[in-house]
Predict the 3D structure of the following.
Amino acid sequence: MADRIPPRRGPQPPAAAPESDAPGLPARRLAATVIDEVLRARVALDETLDRLVPDSGLDAADAGLARAIAVTAFRRLGTIQHAINERLERGSPRHSGLFEPILAAAAAQILFLDVPDHAAVDLAIRHLHEDPRSARYTALGNALLRRVVRERDAILADAEANPFRDTPDWLAASWRAAYGEEAATAIALSHREEPPLDVTAKADPAVWAEKLGGILLPTGSIRLRERQAIATLPGYQEGAWWVQDAAAALPVKLISPAPGERIADLCAAPGGKTAQIAAAGAEVTALDRSGPRLRRLKANLERLGLTAEIVTADATSWQADPFDAVLLDAPCSATGTIRRHPDVAWTKSEEDRDRLVALQAKLLDAAAALTKPGGQLVYCTCSLEPEEGEAQISAFLTRHPQFRRAGASPAEIGGLGAVIDTNGDIRTLPQHLPGETPRLSGWAGFYASRLIRL
């Protein structure tokens, strides 16, 4: 399915709703539109939802359902595609409008969500009727979805027996080569689970873990047990904490910022690491090329009562007096965040990774020039690809012999020595950090290396 949807020239608005809709149809309509938009334009799922939901007219419940359908469809897109393609004797019809996204949304409900089968099928058929290019295939869609209902157990058993079913081939090959079959399989399986939600406290993490009813992780992050509206939780309005994946909080721990130090946070938005540095009392300069993303960073800092110098600039060409420490959280393929952002698996490619590798090298060279003698340069990416992590740093050290590695110690990261590699760099995998349940286990895939300028 996804590989047959041609590129689209620009974002498309959802179809206008009829004056009278069947209950639940607007939510399914939006979900299919979002799936279609993400696959065609290869834009981020969260970005697409944030753009389309406010103008959809949906109430909170229906907006939540649309979001759940779209997220689930991408989390299990390989299983869904395989189930549909196996049951289309002549393949998916071409020039069929929203036929494929509508079926994907319906299959996500039938296979993985607590939605009555008849509702998923009936509303999908109504939606097919609405779309001029899909209408002629309504009977085909009806027959196929009813077959998915009948054969659900077999579909799910097949997916269970094929752990890489929801992983594109290039990623599966990359992870096998980098980590071996067992670890690669664990990565793929972890991406099928709903992700945990972690927060970083500005101070007193043990106190806030208790107030939030959360779990205090060895690294000092707090893992929330229950999913709730973030803005309604204790401490949010007071700016006591911010949402940040536990693995994403590790790179700043390598810097160990102190009051009075000048630290540059390059590619800083949305600002979780900037907040960590500022909360430690250091003088932080947060730089990003995106004005809108920096506005979000500024708003987050204002809520937290923290300050930073905010600069809108391209880090590859920005110049300033050298800093005591430079943090470079480089743009990357983000494959370490697939569990939280399942669309990444289907919207990124090997070509994207290779293009980003070239950009990361330029950013590292620029970061080196901003690091004073004796200062620290910490490089990190939320990617599982060695080309964007281990290989990137090896190449950097060849180009810049004035830098050396300063390996991490278990004591700096909550005693988790298993995530420190033979070079002293941090390499977290999604299946690390086991918890009480699958949802309360794991974290993002992250790489971080600490370098010292001689």
